[in-house]
Amino acid sequence: MDYIDQIAKEIDKVAQSQIQRKRLRTLLDRVTKALRTHSSKGAIEAVQAELDSIVDTADEIAEEISRKIGE
Amino acid sequence: MAAGFQLKKVAISGFRGYGEKSEVIDLACPVVLLIGKNRSGKSSTLNAIEWALYGSEVVGKKMGIEERKGWQVVNLLAKQASVELVLSTPSGDLKVVRKTGRSARRSGETFFYIDSRGNKVTDETKLWARLGLDAKDFMSSVYLHQELIRDILVTTPSVRRDALDRLLGVSDLRALQAALGTIKRSRYERHIGDLLEDLEDLIETRTQAYREQIQDAEDEGREIGLTKSEFSLAGLKKHASQAARQLRQIAQKAKLKLEPMALPKKVNEYSAFIDAVESNIETLRSENPAAASQRDLYRKRGRLEELSGEFQHSLERVQKVKDDIKKLEKRHGSLSRIRKKISELEGQEQEVKDKLEEIGGRISVVDETISYLEKLRSKRPQIPCPACEQPVNPARLLSRLKTVKNQAKQSTQQLLARRDSIREEIRRLQRTIDQLQELTKRKLPSARADVDSIVGEIADEIGKRIKDSDDPTVLIDNELARIERKLEKNKKVLKEYNSALSAVEQTLARVELIGRALQTANKIRQVESITKSRQWQSLRKQESKLMRVLDDIEKLSLAVGNVHTRITRGKLEAARSRIVGYYRMLVKRPDFDTIEIDQRDFDVYAVRNGKKEKVISIFNQGDMNCVALSIFLALAGDQAPDGPGFVMLDDPSQSLDSTQKRRLAEVIDRASASKQIILATMDEDLATYLTKKVAKRKKIYEFGDWDPQEGPTIVEG
Question: Which of B184, B585, B634, B646 makes an SS bond possible with B579, Cβ 3.0 to 4.6 Å?
């Protein structure tokens, strides 16, 4: 990937805060690393794994709350 | 001179059209022309270069090229395929070796490359990284073949875009953007949204159900005299104290002891209090003396009623035995009389016996006399009587004696009948005696003993001695009347007692209703407080985190998209003059003097006075091929500046007329200024034009007849 610097500059433009900029660069690093191994599927899985993990945690908390409501 | 990797030399053996003998082709030249007829091994040469670099990536279904499916890599007459490719780079030569076949696999050396420093590397992905292109990029931006021409101009927008992206060298960007685009934001948003909504609904439903339970308790309470204000902790305590007080009073009166009952100080203590009170109520009910007396009286009454029946029955049995005796005596007389009668009958029997003996004696004498006379009858007509010696006629006497004998036999039979009759009568009378003795000596005393026994039991039950003069039935009736009076009295006592206990139960029901309502109210508070709990905050945090990641993905996708668009536009803009230049050289159409690539759908348009038409709608195949060649040659080599500095063109003159072929040779000449050109053609016209028009130093290889065993015949021209 020869365009990382350009994407990084673009991130600086679209990011709404310094923290978001940092996060976006980390995310870019992750997906480009996955892509470098010739796997766009790997790049998707890297991002999806994080989202699924958040959703799984939310499901677990919601289940616990439901149980408490039902008691 | 072109930058990046240049092809320097290739040695091929056993690969597709090549025989086992290794063919070495020197490629160290700006332009290399492979000229020959169809099926002479030219394409196998280009394929060998491609296979040396990318191996199995360019074989089979992976590449998406129809003709590559079922591709035979090793020549059918060879044991193994081997390609050694030497590339020159600014830092020195790089040698790539790829082999396949049993011996190559056994030795484990199917691929390696040796870099300019002499390092041997077996990881082919490292070579691809150095080239800066993957197999698909190479097939789209370095190697011009008929599939690529179709992809650039004709096929679906996504394939067209893919081909042009690769030509532009932005396929990584597009892959990145596509990867980010596959994340469905709405799916995740909906999931977390549904989760929160379901929980809020659950809280609402549960709270509503609890409120209804409280309302039901209050309605029920109103019916038993509770006011709304009593549904409080104070109300609970008040009614609990009242219940305890009522119970203590009852216990005191009944002289019974109670188990401790802790008055509820908090709402959650009310059910323990209720359990303790209910347990005490149960004890008071079961241990109350009036209730015990009542139970005893019921038992005694039942027993006396039973004994009364049994007594009557025993009397009836005595009477029946007596009646049976009377009946027998009436029919046969008393015992002494029957015995006397039997004695008389026995006398009569003796008389008959005596007569029978007498007749028997007489018959015996008569029989002897008859025998005697029978002997004499034939000897003498007359004989003297043995008794009186008077002469008697034996025949006459014999006749007389036979008559006597017959009469005696008749008398005997009559006497025997008489004897049997007497004996039968005696037996019958004997049986009657037995019956009378059974009744009088066994049954009657037994029935009388039963009566006495029952009378004894009655005496025990009523607790009084019974004299012979007493009537047990009357005594039982008197006792039953006394029991009834006592029962009636007890019933009143018990009614009052139970009524007092029921009053306690009613108070307890109030305690239960108030406690239940207060506990339900507590549950409502607990459920409502869940939205302020740490867990709820954690859930909200997960929601924020999810939104943040989704925002980040969207933002990154936007950034990549912006870069992708900008670079694509920039590259197309930079290559525009080259594309148009090549186009104008190849296609001299006065009606459409220029072409442009739409940056949104990547369709190629022919332009005339600002009016655009899709080339596939108006151009013939030859012009379209020229357009594809213009785009390919203008963009090829731009993808990875440090990557391949060469292009390979396989049969580029298909569908081109003679003029276009001449112009193509001029275009190749121009393109060779910036990149090394390897071109394979069977087109003699093009070969001639190239020979004449290309000014750069060039190597020409003529491919002669192809032999299945030996492979191509290559002669450097």
Answer: B634
Q: Pull the structure tokens for residue B32.
A: 């290399």
Closest-approach residue (CA) in chain A for B529: A69
Q: Calculate helix-pair angle for A40-70, A18-36, nearest 10 degrees.
A: 120
3-state secondary structure B363-411: HHHHHHHHHHHHHHHCCCCCEECCCCCCEECHHHHHHHHHHHHHHHHHH
Rounded to a whole number of angstroms, the distance from the CA of B556 to the nearest CA of chain A is: 6
Element containing residue B168 per DSSP (H, E): helix B157-168
For residue B114, count CB atoms less than 10 angstroms from its CB and return exposed for 0-12, middle for 13-18, buried for 19 or more: middle
Residue B382 makes CB contacts below 8 A (sequence gap 6+) with: B391, B392, B393, B394
pLDDT for B1: 40
Structure tokens at B240: 């609990």
Q: What is the ipTM of this complex?
A: 0.94
Q: Which overall architecture, per CATH, does domain B6-171+565-716 show?
A: 3-Layer(aba) Sandwich (3.40)
Instruction: Tell the CATH topology of B318-470.
Output: Helix Hairpins (1.10.287)
If we measure between CA atoms, which residue out of A33, A50, A11 comes closest to residue B176? Answer: A33
Burial of B625 (0-12, 13-18, 19+ CB in 10 A): buried
- What type of residue sits at position B479? E
| Side chain identity at residue B687, one-letter code | A
pLDDT in tens, B54-109: 998 888 766 666 667 778 899 988 889 999 999 998 889 999 999 998 888 888 88
Secondary structure of residue B429 in the 3-state scheme: helix
Q: How far is CA A68 from the centre of its chain?
A: 31
Distances (CA, A) of B300 to B139, B200, B203, B285, B457: 114, 69, 64, 21, 12
* Number of other CB atoms surrounding residue B574 within 10 Å: 12
Ordered by start, the domain boundaries in chain B are 6-171+565-716, 204-287+481-529, 318-470
pLDDT single digits (tens) B325-376:
999 999 999 999 999 999 999 999 999 999 999 999 999 999 988 888 887 7
Which of A1, A7, A18, A26 best tests the B interface by mutation, with the highest count of B CBs <10 A?
A: A7
Element (H, E) at B443: none
Q: Which of B298-302, B367-371, B445-449, B638-642 has the lowest mean pLDDT?
A: B638-642
Please name the residues in contact with B520: beta carbons below 8 A apart, sequence gap of 6 or more: B210, B213, B214, B217
pLDDT in tens, B204-236: 999 999 999 999 999 999 999 999 999 999 999
Unique residue bearing structure tokens 């112009």: B663
Q: How many domains does chain A have?
A: 1
- CB half-sphere exposure, B615, CA atoms < 13 A: 32
Asked if the Cβ–Cβ distance from A58 to B535 is below 8 Å, we say no
Tokens encoding B38 = 């169809």
Element housing B250 (H / E):
helix B233-254
CA angle centred on B204, ends B198 and B205, rounded to 5°: 85
Q: B204, B210, B539, B548: best mutation site toward chain A, by most A Cβ within 10 Å?
A: B539
Range of the domain at A24: 4-70
User: Where do we find the tokens 């908390």?
Assistant: A61
List B714's β-bridge partners, or say none.
B703
Handedness of CA B436, B440, B446, B447 (dihedral sign): positive
**Alpha-carbon distance B84 to B27, whole Å?**
12
Q: Is the pLDDT of residue B697 over 50?
A: yes
Cβ contacts of residue B457 below 8 Å, gap of 6+? B307
Q: Where are the alpha helices (DSSP H) in B288-334?
A: 289-332
Of A11, A37, A69, the CB nearest to B202: A69
Helices (H) and strands (E) counted in chain A, each on its own, are 3, 0
